[in-house]
Amino acid sequence: MRALPMTDYPATARPRFALVDIVRGVAIIAMVVYHLFWDLSYFRFIAADVGNDPVWVLFARSILAVFLFLVGVGLVLGHGRGDIRWRSFWRRWGFVVVGALAISVATWFAFPQSFVYFGVLHAIALFSLMGLAFLRAPLWLAAGVAAVVIALPFFYSDALFNEKAWSWIGFWQVPPSTNDLVPVFPGLGVVLLGVIAARLVLSSAWAPRLAAIAPAGRLARLLAWLGRWSLLLYLVHQPILLGLVYPASLVFQPQLDMRRADFLRSCQSTCQTGGTAPGLCTTYCQCGLEGVETNRLWNAIETGMVTAGDQTLLDAQNRQCSALIYPELNARQ
């Protein structure tokens, strides 16, 4: 396929690539699915640890990579075939910044120990500004910078970047406590890959063909519509999900059921490891669970902060439950 110079595609022609909207629509749906299961995990409706499970982490990072790649593509489609449309750029950029600040404020009140101080929208705002410098730069330079930005975190890290004040750069050794962090290294590199890909496509004979693709069918049109409104949907989807999941957790209290299940599972494993028969362990652990709830010992068990009074109750409970499975202990008391 022969590469054509950028000028062969008119700078004034700014067709909307429906294919980009469709991909963005799929990405926003995937993001909603991830956050739904994150919320369900956080409120203990499901046992999976969505925030740390390797499969879920890979899923989340894949979605993020698609979004960042599309940021680069969007920069080129919107501003890369002529003069930068500053009014349009600043209007969208301002909307992103306001959204980022809103997320920081909201998460500060909801999750003060892990609030979002440099999440997806914060990164998009910064990377959009930085990406403008590569709309006209030689492709070899953009490719070189992208390679360095993506690869460097694999070879360099420093404890300094464990601190929140510097963690947004990306060279931490231990990830800081936050619900969302999209650092410059390697995030900017993925945006630059999108810039490079879009510039290559627009300078090729494929550009008019891709621009001519129109969504056919309800699903494709829906995905394209979601893609066009992806920024707004990103802002509102998590408040909507939390507005549904949180009240449901107050009604159904899944955390209590999950806590009981965790207690029984751990107790059963420890009991059987000690050589006691599984059936006897089940009886013993069920007795222990009833004692924990009756004596309100959950805090002592979960935190490990056991007072003298708690220890007295735990010892009495252990003797009572042991007597259930070993009746001869009753004769000794």
From TrEMBL:
- The residues that cross the membrane are 21-38, 58-77, 89-109, 115-135, 140-161, 181-202, 232-252
Question: Keyword Oxidoreductase on this protein?
Answer: no
Q: Which InterPro entries match?
A: HGSNAT_cat
- The Heparan-alpha-glucosaminide N-acetyltransferase catalytic domain covers 16-239
Keyword terms of this UniProt record: Membrane, Transmembrane, Transmembrane helix
Q: Which domain of life is it from?
A: Bacteria
Tell me one Pfam family matched here. Answer: HGSNAT_cat
- Tell me what this protein is called: Heparan-alpha-glucosaminide N-acetyltransferase catalytic domain-containing protein
